[in-house]
Every structure is written in C-alpha cells, then in structure tokens.
Amino acid sequence: HTSLSDITIDYSQVNCISFTGVSVLIHNNTCHDAGWGLYMAYYPANGPVEIYQNDIYNSSHGITIGGSGTNNVTTVKIYNNHIHDYANWDTTANQYHHDGIHIFGAPPNAYANDVWIYNNLFDGDTGTNITAHVFMESGSSAWTVSGAAKIFNNVFLTTSSQPIYNGLLAYAGGTGTQIYNNTIIGVTGNGGSCASLTSTTSVLFKNNVITSCDTAISANTTTFVVGGFNYNVYAPQGLTNEFVWNLATYTSNFTTWKTACGCDANSLNPADA
Q: What DSSP string describes the chain?
C-alpha cells in the first residue's frame, strides 16, 4: 500500500499469520505492515484459540476473526497484546477500514461464542479510516446470536484528530456480555465516540473510565442486567451530546442520561458535578 490513492491490494489476503484449527496458540510474535495481521477463518471444529503477547502494528486490522457457511469457533481468548498504528492503510476512498480486533460472522450459521478480550493495549495513530479498536458486529455480519464476550482490563487510546466511526469500543449483538475495568481515552473534537453498545441484551458495563470523546457512550436497543450498568467514571468529554440513549436522548447532562437509561446510579461525571 503506497499512498492514499492506492486501493489495488485486497488487504484481507495480506496476513502475517492466517490460521484455523483446534487448540491453537498464537503468541510472542511481532507482526507489522500487513493488511489483516492475524486472520482466523472459521472452519469446522474450531477452538479453543488463544492469541497473546503479540506486538501488531501498521496493519489495517490487527486481529480478524470471521467466517461463512455453517462453521463456528468456540472460546477465543485475546490477551496481553499491543495493537497499534493503523494510519499507513488510510485511503481517500476509505477502502480499508481499520480495527484493532474485528470479529464478525455470516448468519445464519457461522458464529463465534465465548470471546475473551483482556489486558490489551490499543494506541498509536489510528488514522482517518478507523471503525474501532474493538469492533464486534451485529446485523448481516453478526459475530454471534446468543454468545457472550468478556472485555476487561484493556486500555483504548487514540492520538488521531479524525472521527471514530463506531467508537473506540464498538460492541453489538449477543447476550450476557461483560465489559468492565477498561480505560478509554479519545480526542476531544474529532466527532468520535468512546464506547458504543448496540442490539445486545443483559449486558454488564461497570468500572470503566471514559474520557475526552465527543460522545462518551452511545447505547441503543440494549438492555442491562439489574444494576449491571454502574460505577463508571466519565471524566470531561467534548461537545454537546456526551450521552446517547436509544437514538432518542442526546444529552450532555448526566442526570438526564441516568434517568433515560435507568443506569449509572453510582457512577461519576466530574464535569456535571
């Protein structure tokens, strides 16, 4: 990939490691300047898989997990990785959208289940074409139907002044997912979101620190376990709509947000204190 106008490469076919199988360990590698750095395509009888202690950079996708047909993968653990710097895959036409971790499926039968993402650092220059550091899809490319993820102890950073399309953490689908103890720091004024939750049920979202995004959090068609959206800290954010609930409530007032979502009773927002 040579310039902003160069869209000749199929980035999904340029990998450091392309893999599938049972009881797979991918660890202690340095991977850089690939399109999709580590790529796991679903095949029958996949998993468990562990991806850990890798340094992945200058790739449009750090880790990609996706499939088609009737194939699934069960128990994926992604931890202790450093995934960073996607900007060298920017294009004027947004040909290569950027994700640190991208997990998707192919309904009705190709899905992932039991995904763990923890103790990872996402940072660097995220470029102009970033979708998310972690992007787990719903809809026509849903990563799961009823599976759950655990996303915890991660640090999400960006130095880019460009918009973050879906949120530094963009999670959708499934049921019973737990998202906790994460630190998410954006760049005020880039029009982006720190966290986005969509079309998911029985979510736990606790003990997260979120700051410096124009939208701290957007939660749409989402339900939470009782008391399960709480004890978060929202340090000063950006512009007028720091909190979005069900695409109906757009507010920078923390009390209005708590009333709309019925959540965050014990959370803090110093900017609204």
A: --STT---S-GGG--SEEE--SSEEEES-EEES-SEEEEEE--TTB--EEEES-EEES-SEEEEEE--TT--EEEEEEES-EEE--GGG--TT--S-EEEEEE--BTTTB-EEEEEEES-EEES---SSEEEEEEE--GGG-S-SS--EEEES-EEE----S--SS-SEEEES-BS-EEES-EEE--TTS--EEEEEEEEEEEEEES-EEES-SEEEEEEEEEEEEEEEES-EE----SS--EEETTTEEES-HHHHHHHHT--TT-B-GGG-
**Residue for token pair 């898989």:** 49
pLDDT digits (tens, 9 = 90+) for 167-204: 899 999 989 999 999 999 988 777 678 999 999 999 99
Reported as a single tens digit per residue, the pLDDT across 64-78 is 998 766 778 889 999
Looking at the DSSP bridge assignments, the partners of residue 82 are 55, 121
pTM equals 0.95
Residue 23 has pLDDT above 60, yes or no: yes
pLDDT of residue 272: 61
The rounded distance, in Å, linking the Cα atoms of 257 and 220 is: 13
